[in-house]
Amino acid sequence: MIERPRILVVDPHPDDEAFYWGGTIAKYAEMGADIHLLVLSNGEKGKVAITKGEKGPIGIRQIEPSEEKWLAEVRQQECLRVADILDIKRENIEFAGLPNLGINQNAIRLIEDSIKRVDPHVIISFDETGTSRPTNQDHSWAGIATFTAVRSLLEKAYGSLELGSVQNMPCSPPFSFRRLLTYNLPKASTFLQEYATLDLPEEDLTLVDVRDFYQRKVQACSEHKSQAHLFRYFDKVGLLTMPFEAFYERISLVPSCKGKTDILFGLDGAVTHTSTTIFPEPETRFISTDPDFYRVIIDHCEMVTHSSDNVY
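Below the sequence we write its predicted structure tokens.
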């Protein structure tokens, strides 16, 4: 393995770094990888958790426009505390400040700039479905923009890429990038079957064993107190205790890591070709197919909304 590989994680909001790939981040940070985090928006328009008493029921309410600046600051601070738990250096976190529910083609340039600064070996983000169909469009756009940024980087070096193909490389790349991976939501329970993303066979995935990092992932997720309703939901359906976090290889310049357990597999190998998968064009729009997603969470977790109670 490369002595100190750099991994760039592209998140649409603070909290994604913990809830989705927190175990993977903790594992590779402990192995010596240099983790960088690009947070595209502050999640300032999101729902916020409310509680009744210290151990009372958790509910949610919609944030008011006048509270958006406050919530953005709260969620940034939560993300910084999570960084300490997952061993991400705070100076390696960039808050891009794009509008929540407004991530689109504008993110492509920001991601390209981040790639140029960080020069990562591996990049991680969401897939084009946003990981689960009922989620908001920011997740989808983060994945689309990340893929497009990486593709642009490669095409500037080598010319047009034919998606879904394997092409010979004329020379070694003038950058460290070797692999783009997108997170694939595991089918944690029967309830989640309908919300799972790309229905891929296990041999097409890289399954990172995170069982030794379960406690740190749970601790990291719990730091996002403004999103305590999501913590309750993820815990209830088993997503916090999954033994593996699954990733799908979308672009690779080195031998594939599909069917393996290491997202850094083969990074020190010779670059002879590039392989890509089909991915949507940047103008494609993915909007939530389930506008009652948060109602589903409330019902499933038996939460109660108390609009007059304290925020988390």
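The chain has one domain: 6-307.
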